[in-house]
Amino acid sequence: MSILHLTIGSQIPDGLFDGAVARILELQQDDGSIPWYDGGVFDPWNHTEAAMGLDVMGERDAAVRAYQHLADIQLEDGSWWMEMGSAVPLDEDEQRYTGEDEQEKKYERDTNSAAYIATGIWHHYLLTNDLDFLRHFWPTIEAAFGFVVSHQSEHGDIRWASRDTDAPDDALITASSSIHKSLEHAAHIAATLGYAELAATWIASREALGEALRTKPHRFDRTWAPKDNFSMDWYYPVLGGAFTGDAALARIASRWDDFVQDGVGCRCVIDQPWVTVAESAELCLALLGAGDRKRAEQMLSWQHQHRDESGAYWMGMQTEVGKPWPAEKPAWTAGAVILATDAVTQTTPAANALIDHSPPELSGIDATQQRQRLNKR
Fold it and tell me: What is the DSSP string of 292-352?
């Protein structure tokens, strides 16, 4: 596949994502769920990313079924079970991941996975301007963020998993950065539906989390080794809007040479010759949010070469041997590339959902006062 350079106003070319959309629809189950890939696990975050990709490409019914599935399986406390499985082959001699035995899967209730539904629901509203859709999913959103915010410490960080499990009491930079973005979208939903005080509470929670990400590194990775060898810990605070403007550009510049392979994309892990398409697409979005459109367009242009003959996107490329590895085409990868392409080309009304970091403007509500109340809860 040749490199395709898209720019603002160029629109998504007809047929570009036929294979990617077909791949997501192929993976979507009768109940609306979208697993990672064939035989792969299900988690609400990646499910939502794939649903947003479908929505951009006009697959409204499939996207709504995906969101309805989340509403249908939400737990009473507002969270979801997520399956935690291997994302790569268990045996490097095997090119395809065939799944784990059921008893080997681990299940967790993850605050980041609970929060991301707000991004998907707000994205759909921006595409459709459908208030009834927002109203329908409001109870799901309200419950989800009751769960998320209840896991925020007085320092602003948000515990990565439910307190009533054996999960370590700790916070993750990447997950927290994603929650930071989802809190923004949840606040937009609340404000649009007239729940201004709740919107202000979530904005206050977002501000406290952003401050922790910027100024309290000691609140993250307290009980395990730092994850700064993963590229997501580098660019996600920018992607999620915790770092903006000059601070965002400085953060991107600080490790660009560590993670970016010219002409190919962004590595997942610093010490492995493995460029992953989803991380590269997300880095494109982070660059757009930081105002670096030139490099965002370039990063996106490198990703279209990582497709199979049908047009579906591989998970990643092992650059030392020049071959896709593993031989998987995840639904979330397709979704990430579609979302990045929409943001670059500005094709749909939701093109800025992941790159504009402005919370809703609320009149008559003091966000500082709401934050003080939050800290006293």
Answer: -HHHHHHHHHHHTTSB-TTSPBPSEEETTTTEESSS---HHHHHHHHHHHHHHHT-STTTT
